[in-house]
Backbone:
């Protein structure tokens, strides 16, 4: 997506005489040579490694009763070392895609070994303990080989750890203390992301933190928690978005993610605050605050951060519809509600068009 947009922009600048064709071709060639550039071959190799890992895990789950315990454990340990050794070999020869796939197999084999040992010897503990041990091993592998692929596996294991903390009724009381380890795991993943240059994986860590905050509120709903989310998210958003902020430069290095996810936390806090409100007036006040936050996000950083802009649009439109349903909808009935909803959506569409045109003029003036 980004490459296609960049190619169109370069072609336009060449046609306008702003850039020579040789420079445009050199820029595209440099981008295509980057390790982070999308490659179908790399993706297919990673998928093949994951499928083979799934077959290995299912084989372990079959509990090979016909084989002695020592043979089973030795076999899995040998696979772990073999995959890592071959991964190091291919990485050293420059075959990074094959090396990454082998490291994925080695990391998944380590998880299979944990499952096999626990299965054979009926070790005490639960899935959360196993996920933590697996996460630690994956972190060591990612750091030792500076592997972006294994860093992505560590992020997935952090998600798996969060999922194992819940049952059908909510947070499992026996592992409630583990719940507070989730942001620590996210911080470790972000550290590995910077070390291994796994830029896209950082979104998994950010989403993990946002999901953790949502789970925290669902399990412990309260007015103070909703206010805390809103205030913390708003402060973080301003620190990441305002040019005069001392953290602005650091946030810019991380791209659009800090502004977007902090803005999302502020929105979640206001939605929670609205759910805690009692009475139409209090609920409407929280709704107006949500509309104000949406407009503020669009105004502060919307011109340079499309993710925040579109989230602001969505929040503004949905909140307008929600307020119309809660107030006028109950008075005018279904047909009146749809009539007002259509008018509101048309108004929002008109505002969005005006804002987008304004942002477009600002972007052209800054070139």
Residues:
């Amino acid at each position: 997506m980004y490459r296609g947009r960049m190619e169109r922009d370069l072609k336009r600048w060449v046609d306008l005489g702003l850039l020579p064709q040789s420079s445009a071709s050199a820029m595209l060639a440099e981008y295509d040579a980057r390790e982070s550039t999308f490659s179908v071959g790399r993706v297919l190799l990673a998928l093949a490694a994951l499928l083979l890992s799934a077959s290995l895990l299912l084989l372990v789950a079959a509990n090979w009763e016909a084989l002695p315990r020592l043979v089973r454990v030795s076999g899995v340990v040998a696979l772990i070392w073999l995959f890592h050794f071959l991964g190091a070999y291919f990485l050293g020869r420059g075959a990074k895609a094959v090396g990454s796939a082998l490291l994925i197999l080695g990391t998944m084999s380590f998880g299979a070994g944990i499952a096999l040992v626990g299965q054979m010897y009926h070790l005490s503990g639960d899935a959360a303990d196993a996920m933590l041990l697996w996460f630690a091993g994956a972190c060591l592998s990612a750091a030792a080989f500076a592997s972006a692929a294994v860093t992505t596996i560590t992020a997935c294991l952090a998600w798996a750890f969060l999922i194992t903390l819940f049952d059908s009724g909510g947070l499992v009381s026996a592992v409630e203390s583990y719940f507070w380890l989730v942001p620590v795991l996210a911080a470790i993943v972000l550290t590995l992301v910077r070390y291994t240059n796994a830029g896209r994986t950082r979104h998994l860590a950010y989403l993990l933190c946002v999901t953790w905050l949502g789970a925290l509120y669902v399990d412990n709903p309260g007015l103070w928690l909703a206010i805390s989310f809103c205030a913390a998210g708003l402060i973080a958003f301003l620190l990441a978005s305002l040019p005069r902020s001392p953290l602005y430069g650091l946030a810019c290095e991380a791209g659009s993610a800090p502004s977007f996810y902090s803005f999302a936390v502020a929105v979640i806090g206001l939605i929670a605050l609205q759910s805690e409100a009692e009475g139409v007036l209090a609920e409407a006040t929280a709704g107006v605050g949500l509309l104000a936050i949406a407009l503020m996000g669009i105004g502060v950083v919307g011109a340079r951060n499309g993710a925040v802009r579109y989230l602001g649009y969505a929040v503004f439109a949905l909140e307008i519809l929600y307020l119309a349903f809660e107030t006028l909808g109950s008075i005018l009935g279904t047909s009146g509600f749809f009539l007002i909803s259509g008018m509101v959506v048309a108004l929002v569409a008109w505002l969005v068009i005006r804002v987008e045109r304004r942002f477009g003029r600002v972007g052209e003036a800054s070139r």
Remarks:
- The chain is about 80% helix and 0% strand.
- Residues 306-366 form the longest helix (61 residues).
- The two ends are 22 Å apart (CA to CA).
